């Protein structure tokens, strides 16, 4: 290495070992103030139109059909009678559920579990096939929002009148209309809360107590609580419940696929959109969408379905009715907004092709699980015996020796039999025991149980000591109604012989 190269190398090593130069930090001028972005967007008031044209659309008729059906069932069931009692009553105080002729006790909680499983599988199946059908037609939030909006329209008018009224300054007329609307909402909400409590307290007794201003504390609390929830959710929150409070909208995407039937806008047919006269629509190079905005005006959540599937869409199909009406007036074919699948739009399936692709593994699995759960519940209910028997050994005396009149030695065990009569008439039951040679009852063999009653009966069993094996022996105790041989239950237990 030359002298010059060594000098250069030494200089490089010195620079490498030298401390790094300190670079002064200059303050950065603050950026221009930006608009504050809130995590919760301020609510935009929505004024959905009730209808387009003079008559209700097909899907609007379906929605109102479900409104009538659900409310007739909800408000009517508590007033039906069965065997001189309320037909449907979840009597928590007495720990009994009455469903017409079926009476369920706390021991029958497995049936409630099965019912919840069936509801879950049904929801999964309907969602996989047809999207948010539950939300659009039968959800209580949707149903009561429809009813409350109908009251609002009857008092304040349709969309344009409501918008004008809300923007107008306060006056006697505005106060009167607003007061009448909220009074009607409050009456309906209180009646809804009263009916809800009537499912847990006999509704006729509840009504008499309410008329006499003698309503109990808890009954009053739950009536007001449920009434306030109905008033707030259906009258004020409305679409906010679906957007922010309901979890179903959040996990629905996990149950959707490209063959799920959802409300869609056919962009290939509708774009480019724009207003035009009926005669020059195609000549202007425009699609079928006339950009009237009616699909947005009728939407209860205020979305534009032309922007694609959105989490706020509840599947009510109001936009389909509005668009079909516009297509009829424009002389264009219906179905610009329609129920379709993502695959059908991409690959132009026919209606038969859409139906065929609905039968897919996910749907078959949900259908199989739902059928199995329904079948299991039906068979369990058919095989159910309205009699509960529980055998409890007396722990104070496990086994003892007794002598009969002939000085024969017997081994005696003592039990306590708890019997629940789940029928609506009194029953006389007989006790039997089997499983050991010479096993006999040493106490009363028959006893009475009142309707829907529960009794605890002492039972003494004896077996001859000379033929009884030492230790524990399995036996069966049977309880049978004398008036109904099918009303029979047995319980397995043990008979102890402590002699050696």
Could you explain how this protein is built, in words?
The protein is α+β, with helices and mostly antiparallel strands. It has 2 domains: 43-384, no CATH class; 387-497, Sandwich (Immunoglobulin-like). 43% of the residues lie in helices and 19% in strands. The chain contains 17 helices and 16 strands. The strands form 5 sheets. Strands 8, 9, 10, 12 and 14 form a 5-stranded antiparallel beta sheet that branches. It has a 4-stranded antiparallel beta sheet with strand order 13-11-15-16, with no helix packed on it. A 3-stranded antiparallel beta sheet has the order 3-4-5, with no helix packed on it. β3 (88-91) and β4 form a beta hairpin. α3 (109-130) packs antiparallel against α17.
List its salient traits.
500 residues; 2 domains; 17 helices; Immunoglobulin-like; 43% helix; 16 strands; single chain; four-stranded antiparallel sheet; disordered N terminus; five-stranded antiparallel sheet; alpha+beta
Strand elements, count: 16
Radius of gyration, in angstroms, nearest whole number: 37 Å
Number of domains: 2
- Note poorly predicted spans: 1-29
| Helix-strand category | alpha+beta
In what range is the share of β-strand residues?
Answer: 15-25%
- What is the 3D shape? elongated
Mean pLDDT: 88
Q: What is the helical fraction, as a range of percent?
A: 40-55%
Number of helices: 17
Distance between the termini: 109 Å
User: How is the main sheet built?
Assistant: 5 strands, antiparallel
Concise summary:
This protein is of the alpha+beta class. The chain is built from 17 helices and 16 strands.
């Amino acid at each position: 290495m030359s002298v010059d190269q060594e000098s250069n190398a030494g200089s490089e090593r010195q620079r490498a070992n030298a401390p790094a130069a300190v670079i002064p930090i200059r303050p950065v001028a603050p950026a221009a103030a930006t608009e504050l972005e809130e995590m919760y967007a301020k609510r935009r008031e929505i004024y959905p139109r009730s209808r387009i044209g003079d008559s209700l659309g097909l899907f609007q008729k379906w929605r109102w059909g479900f409104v009538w059906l659900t409310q007739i069932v909800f408000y009517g069931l508590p007033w039906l009678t069965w065997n001189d009692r309320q037909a449907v009553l979840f009597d928590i105080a007495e720990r009994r559920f009455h469903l017409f002729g079926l009476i369920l006790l706390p021991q029958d909680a497995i049936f409630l579990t099965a019912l919840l499983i069936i509801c879950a599988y049904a929801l999964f199946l309907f969602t996989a096939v047809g999207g948010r059908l539950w939300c659009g037609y039968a959800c209580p939030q949707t149903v009561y929002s429809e009813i409350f909006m109908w009251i609002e329209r009857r008092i304040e008018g349709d969309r344009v009148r409501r918008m004008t009224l809300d923007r107008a300054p306060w006056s006697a007329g505005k106060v009167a209309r607003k007061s009448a609307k909220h009074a009607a909402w409050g009456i309906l909400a209180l009646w809804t809360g009263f009916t809800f409590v009537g499912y847990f307290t006999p509704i006729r007794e509840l009504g008499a107590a309410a008329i006499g201003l003698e309503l109990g504390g808890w009954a009053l609390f739950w009536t007001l609580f449920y009434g306030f929830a109905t008033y707030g959710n259906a009258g004020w929150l409305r679409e906010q419940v679906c957007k922010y409070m309901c979890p179903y909208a959040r996990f629905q995407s996990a149950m959707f696929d490209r063959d799920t039937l959802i409300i869609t806008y056919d962009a290939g047919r509708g774009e480019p959109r724009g207003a035009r006269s009926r005669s020059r629509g195609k000549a202007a190079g425009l699609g079928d969408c006339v950009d009237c905005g009616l699909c947005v005006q009728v939407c209860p959540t205020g979305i534009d379905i032309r922007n694609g599937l959105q989490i706020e869409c509840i599947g009510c199909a109001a936009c389909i009715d509005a668009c079909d009406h516009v297509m009829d007036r424009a002389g264009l074919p219906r179905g610009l907004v329609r129920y379709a699948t993502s695959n059908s739009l991409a690959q132009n399936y026919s209606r038969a092709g859409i139906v065929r692709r609905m039968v897919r593994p996910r749907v078959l699995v949900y259908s199989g699980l739902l059928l199995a759960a329904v079948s299991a519940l039906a068979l369990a209910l058919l095989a159910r015996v309205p009699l509960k028997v529980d055998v409890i050994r007396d722990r104070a005396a496990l086994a003892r020796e007794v002598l009969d009149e002939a000085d024969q030695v017997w081994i005696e065990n003592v039990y306590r039999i708890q019997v629940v009569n789940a029928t609506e008439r009194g029953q006389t039951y007989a006790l039997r025991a089997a499983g050991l040679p010479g096993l006999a009852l040493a106490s009363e063999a028959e006893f009475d149980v009142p309707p829907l009653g529960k009794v605890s009966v002492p039972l003494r069993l004896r077996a001859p000591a000379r033929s009884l094996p030492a230790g524990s022996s399995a036996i069966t105790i049977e309880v049978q109604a004398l008036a109904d041989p099918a009303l029979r239950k047995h319980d397995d237990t043990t008979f102890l012989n402590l002699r050696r």
